[in-house]
Amino acid sequence: MGRMSMGLGVGFITYVVPVYVAEITPKESRGSFSFANQLLVTSGFAITYAVGTVASWRTLALLAIIPGIVQLIGLFFIPESPRWLANAGRVKEFRAALQYLRGKDADISAEEEEIQASVDDMNNGPKARMVDIFQRKYAYALTVGLGLMFLQQLGGNSGVAYYGSSIIEKSGFPINIGTIVMSLIQIPISAVGVALMDISGRRALLMVSAGGMGISAFLVGLSFVLQGLNLFKKVTPILTVISITGHIGSFAIGMGGIPWIIMSEIFPMSVKALAGTLVTLVNWSSSWMVTYSFNFMMQWSPAATFFIFATGSAATVAFTWKLVPETKGRTLEEIQASMTTLR
User: Fold this and answer.
1) Residue 211 in contact with residue 313, Cβ under 8 Å?
2) CB distance 20 to 81 below 8 Å
3) Domain extent at residue 137
4) For the chain, what percentages of helix, strand and coil (3-state, to nearest 5) are there?
5) Major facilitator superfamily (MFS) profile domain: from which residue to which, for each copy (predicted)?
6) Predicted pLDDT at 342
7) Is residue 30 part of a domain?
């Protein structure tokens, strides 16, 4: 029951937080603000990994109560999304929230008009149903959203994140040292991602991230091949740890957060809840499949397992280059209008 409630909580928050952050931030800094969420998630993972080397899982579970309570209290002090308020017809609160978020001296008239016009267009149409998200006009956005979420997992991050210690142990490297290095590297790498998000754009970071994951996964597979051949016995454990660290770092700089950011940007408000639910379901279902099958794959062939992950990362680079749009510097309304144009 504890794991089930945690799963429900994580499932909700991984969708709601990127959408909320995207809706409250100005277009010039939306990417950095949204990716800051991934930086903090990564920091939490890193702290958990580090503490987990000296504490039991029960202690970790009890310590996790603290940030949960802090977050729950903090939610009473943040403003509601202006776009949600506008959609709910609470015009006075919508304007007050937008003014509060932009600053008391900021001119919000243009942004207010754009949001209100988008909401009016949506409300003039019929209420969206689950079947509506499969209409042709949403096909492009749905393809990008579902594709990125599936490919995010096909690169093997869930397997590496949940079984990183086992991989390091299997390579012959000291497990505590390897786990701490593997976890702490994520924080500075994610910070770089925050800095680059609104400079390089989403597409470039996604391709760099997926490419780095692919190269790292290939090197892990190669190290297991060499280990199986009894070659370079002193080098292969080090190569494994460096490559696993590179895989996790590459994920942190782009693939960890950007698919969630893009998902929060591309769907119109009329179908955002339905499409977001489907996209989140695909992401966590794919994560479950990778996590569940990882041990069986490693027993079958550690090298082949990581060569498969490398192939998945290469597919992500190709998918991003061919289909994923650049959303940097555009308002949500501009992005969504372009995504729903029949292609």
Assistant:
1) yes
2) yes
3) 2-78+126-339
4) 80, 0, 20
5) 1-328
6) 47
7) yes
